[in-house]
Inverse folding.
């Protein structure tokens, strides 16, 4: 369990680093091309970084994404789709990724609170 947590923490650290990288590269490229739309530059850079680094946020958070099949083409398509979604999230930069992680944390806390509230009483015999 501790090893899984450590791997997850390392993955999220790399993901945050990639988000900072996308932010800085967008500033650099946007400075070189002042007439270009920075949002579009950010999206392209986010997709390139996610594809190159093989970042799939769906796998990182444990969301089953894709189809249960032995067809390698469908599995590859699901993985690429997850990477594209991750690239779009990376394109929001470090602030966007931080906001997403904060929302995930709040969602987890709410889910744990619901489980505590709706916990069934133990049956006594």
């Amino acid at each position: 369990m501790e090893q899984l947590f450590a791997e997850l923490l390392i993955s999220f650290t790399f993901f945050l680093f990639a988000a900072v990288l996308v932010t800085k590269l967008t500033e650099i490229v946007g400075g070189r091309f002042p007439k270009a739309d920075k949002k579009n530059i950010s999206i392209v850079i986010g997709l390139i970084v996610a594809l190159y680094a093989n970042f799939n946020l769906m796998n990182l958070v444990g969301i089953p994404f894709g189809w249960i099949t032995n067809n390698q083409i469908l599995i590859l398509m699901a993985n690429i789709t997850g990477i594209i979604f991750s690239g779009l999230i990376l394109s929001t930069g470090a602030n966007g990724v931080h906001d997403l992680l904060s929302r995930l944390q709040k969602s987890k806390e709410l889910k744990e609170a619901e489980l505590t509230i709706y916990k069934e009483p133990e049956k006594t015999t």
About this structure: DSSP finds five helices and no strands in the chain. The longest helix spans residues 2-32. The chain has a mean pLDDT of 80. Residues 40 and 91 are 9 Å apart (CA to CA).
